[in-house]
Amino acid sequence: MGNQNQPDSYKLMSHLSSPFVSVIIPVFNDAKRLKICLEALENQTYPKSLYEVIVVDNGSDEAEDIEGVVAQFEKAIATYESAPGSYAARNKGISLAKGEVIAFTDADCIPAPDWLEKGVENLLQTPNCGLVAGKIEIFFKNPKQLTTVELYESIMALPQREFLEKHQYGATANVFTFKNVIDKVGGFDASLKSSGDVEWGQRVASFGYKPIYAEDTCVSHPARYSFNDIYKRTLRHAGGYYDLQIKKEKSFLERNKRFFISLAQDLTPPLMFAFNLFLDSRLKGVQQKLKVSLVLIFIRYVSAWEKLKLKFGGVSARE
After folding, report:
1. So what CATH class is 8-143+158-222?
2. In whole angstroms, what is the distance from residue 70 CA to residue 145 CA?
3. Do 31 and 2 form a contact (C-beta atoms < 8 A)?
4. DSSP of 42-108, one letter per residue?
5. What digits encode the pLDDT tens for the residues 143-162?
């Protein structure tokens, strides 16, 4: 006799070995890498009749011709979301999705050939599963000659297992969930331009669903290459943190307390982080350790400056 207390998502899917999957990909001015992503999705081991790919153009320049790129691929359809932000775009994709399972990745990611197969397998075999956060493997333009920023990314970028185990969320570069989980907990907060995956993942956990990390469900993600790349990412992350943790706090006193604590953390010299980097065996020699420490300090002070701008009326960046 089966467990009568199993959640709806598990009851619905436990008898289905291959549910229909909707893959949702937001894109903004990244047609070249989107094409590579879609090529990888055309060559999945999962049955071709059991998945669709929904690409949501989030206001790309006309010259990018996102619709023309998508039209080259049998499994993909294109749609459009004018509200800026990847979470608004993902919500648009969810509204059109036909699948019992929803899979999220990004236009700059390259899913492994068995990505869908493994993601669905992990989702189905975990009772009460709310989300599967898969591995995000970082790759480089020239692995034999990393830039200073790539070196930093090789140590610090997208630690998906840590996101899941310490903070109960998965970066949406690689997340699977059930459509009925989204129906129950709601979609992403479309007002956020960053950290929407944090808020949504923690909301899933708050409803009593189980989030899991899956090492075998893998996508590859390019490392940021230059200080300009890491600068833009830092602006977006600082804005996401501000909008999620500070701006939405209803209490004036609590809002300002959170702001000043966050600012102090950014402005305090990150000596402990630097010390840990010097102990990290993945970094070879003093020069590599100093380079990564430099990027870390750069990020902290850029983040502090962005939060100050937002505090005095600025608008969070989308990229």
Report:
1. alpha beta
2. 33
3. no
4. HT-SS-GGGEEEEEEE-S--GGG-HHHHHTT-TTEEEEE--SSSHHHHHHHHHHH---SEEEEE-TT
5. 989 999 999 898 888 899 99
